[in-house]
Design a protein that fits this description.
Blueprint lengths: L3 E2 L3 H8 L7 H5 L5 H15 L9 E2 L1 H11 L3 H7 L6 E7 L1 H4 L2 H13 L3 E8 L3 H7 L9 H8 L4 E8 L2 H9 L4 H7 L4 H5 L8 E3 L3 H11 L5 H13 L3 E4 L4 E4 L4
Helix pairs in contact: 4-13
Bound molecules: cytidine-5'-triphosphate and adenosine-5'-diphosphate.
The site of cytidine-5'-triphosphate has 6 residues, from loops.
């Protein structure tokens, strides 16, 4: 993995909510998130090789950004807002074998729109190993982890922030079960039932909770400010004052000229 040294001690302190001195980091505070665990593991490894009394965190930049934005003061507010009073945000991914199949991709785009999701953000990217590993960190001890990360880095993915009433639940129902044979048997018309090829190549991803949605949005859209979106933009989406831009496949707010 490619690490960078980050000198912003104040930010790191804010993230962990404690002074970072020597071994204190390991002992005092339980990590607040999966990414933090990764960071602490990396630190343990490095501190063995270092006689510095002060522990400097080295970490993957993406992981760092995610961790900081996740523990930002406004996180609690963002969480409450994303628990579903009006619109809810979720993060969806169309996985690489689908982006290579225009017919399947178009069908999934249609499913997004006909089920009244708003496309708030869209990003097309080929994931790096670091990005896929931090995204799927919770699965790192599972037998399918290596194949999953390899697959996710094998081609372009389309990553979305979607908004809708009850977005998380509705998108996961549309996707169907994680395992494709189960999807084909119990929900043959679901996205995974229709387009999944295997348990790994199961077509799409969807956040499984409001917490996961915020964590995942922070990984793929580090500059997206959830609170600002709820403050300034949600009302335009609720009021239907948005138009789907067909080229970008994103809903844009109608601006008065
Ligand atoms: N040790 C293993 C290996 C496989 N499987 C299950 O069997 C499925 C099919 O395994 P495999 O033939 O290796 O997968 P492929 O059909 O090649 O597809 P993919 O690797 O994309 O999942 C896996 O996805 C997994 O659900 C399992 O439970 N335990
Ligand atoms: N048994 C499995 N075999 C192969 N890949 C799997 C298996 N279970 C999960 N995966 C892969 O890991 C991803 C993440 O798994 P998980 O978080 O459990 O499901 P979901 O994507 O439905 O939230 C799945 O979407 C799938 O690509």
């Amino acid at each position: 993995m490619n690490f960078e040294i980050l000198g912003e001690r104040s930010l790191i302190t804010k993230f962990f909510g404690t002074q970072i001195q020597g071994r204190q980091l390991e002992e005092k505070k339980k990590p607040v998130c999966e990414q933090a665990e990764v960071i602490v593991q990396q630190n343990k490894h490095m501190s063995n090789n270092s006689d510095k009394s002060e522990l400097w965190l080295r970490m993957n930049t993406t992981v760092f950004e995610t961790a900081v934005s996740w523990k930002h003061e406004s996180y609690e507010i963002a969480m409450q807002r994303n628990v579903n009073k009006s619109l809810q945000l979720t993060m969806a991914i169309i996985k690489p074998h689908i982006t290579k199949a225009p017919h399947a991709l178009k069908k999934i785009h249609d499913i997004i729109i006909t089920n009244e999701f708003y496309v708030v953000k869209r990003r097309i990217l080929v994931m790096t190993e670091d990005l896929a590993s931090s995204f799927y960190a919770e699965h790192r001890n599972k037998f399918f982890y290596n194949r999953l990360v390899t697959f996710m880095c094998s081609g372009s993915s389309e990553v979305y922030i979607l908004a809708r009433w009850d977005a998380i639940k509705v998108w996961r129902e549309l996707m169907g079960p994680t395992k494709v044979y189960q999807a084909q048997y119990t929900a043959p018309d679901s996205i995974r039932g229709s387009f999944g090829l295997s348990d790994t190549r199961n077509a799409t991803h969807g956040s499984d909770s409001p917490e996961s949605a915020l964590r995942e949005i922070a990984i793929f859209f580090p500059n997206f400010d959830v609170n600002k979106w709820f403050d300034e933009e949600e009302k335009h989406f609720i009021g239907g004052n948005v138009t789907l831009c067909p080229e970008q496949f994103v809903h844009q707010i109608n601006r008065v000229m």
